[in-house]
Amino acid sequence: MAQGVEERARTADRSDARVGQLPRPYLLFLGDTVEAGFAKTAFGLRDWAPELCIGEYALPSARISLGLPKLSPSEAYDRGARALVIGVANSGGFIAEAWVPALVDALEAGLDIVSGMHAKLGQIAELRYTAERLGRRLIDIRTPPANIPIATGLKRSGKRLLTVGTDCALGKKYTALSIARAFAARGVATDFRATGQTGIMISGGGIPMDAVVSDFAAGAAELLSPAAAPDHWDVIEGQGSILHPAYAGVSLALLHGSQPDVFVVCHDPSRTRLLGDEDFAVPPVEEIIDLTISLGRRTNPAIRCGGISLNTSSLSDADATSQCDAESARLGLPVADPVRGGPAFDALITDCLKA
To answer: Out of the domains of life, which is the source (predicted)?
Structure first.
């Protein structure tokens, strides 16, 4: 058993090393995106790795901005950028044909291209030929490590926290990063475990869960959070939602494979319909709590909810505080916006760390 755990750790280390060699700093490409939820990679890098972000670059039809300097690829190169990162996370992970001329311009300007899309950069002939001609790199982050094992479901040492959500793109990554940072500030041995392209770019390692063949997804979650010291916490970035018609599969695999002792439900109170699937309503928080406990008990009978993370970015400070207080009273759990921090978030962290 111990030898198997060590081999899994070595495999995870090889994946981390590959990602850690990205060319930096970045010019963040927004494409023709008109909705902020579909540019979460760009926003995540801006918020959690600002020292790596030189500026932003978008097509004229784009309707969002990161608030960074608007630069052409050549201007960004002159300011020190060495890669253009595709900051879009659209449904299906495709690279639009309308983006290709802009990506070619980036290669011509001296930049490598880093992508977290499902579509592979090298499969686009114009990009491949241009990169080969100029000696540039096309780097696909959404590539899982080789030889992922099938999950065992067996209990591992160490402690784990998983962020789950009522929908996609509403704060699971931000919440996990905030919790990992807060744990570390309290002197708790902690690792943030990235499961999506943005988290991998921020942290330098991880496994892109939605690129793993489904039979091996729970095994990938086990590989990502191996056996550890009894007082060590892995804070695992959640993906999708267990009640999302399109993405529930990866959510369930993460739940079973990570075997969380604690989970935190992430929710945006301003959102009523599922992102990218508006025929379905966003489920209530309590339904996600009950379902996560019911399904999570399969691999960890002691699983519990540590609290709720509310994305209150659309609210004023006063309204955000009022909303968190009301939900906490209604649910009987700590409720906070991790980005705002404060006493409510401190209370959530305390509850998560309870024995």
So the answer is: Bacteria
One domain for residues 132 and 233? no
Q: Does a structural domain hold residue 147?
A: no
Tokens of 205: 């390692």
Residue 13 lies in a domain: no
The parent domain of residue 52 ranges over 24-136
Q: What is the pTM of this model?
A: 0.86
Mean of all residue pLDDT scores within the chain: 92
Q: Tell me: the pLDDT tens digits for 164-210?
A: 999 998 999 999 999 999 999 999 999 999 999 999 999 888 999 99
> pLDDT tens digit string along 282-320?
999 999 999 999 999 999 999 999 999 999 999 999 999
Q: Which two tokens stand for residue 171?
A: 């704060």
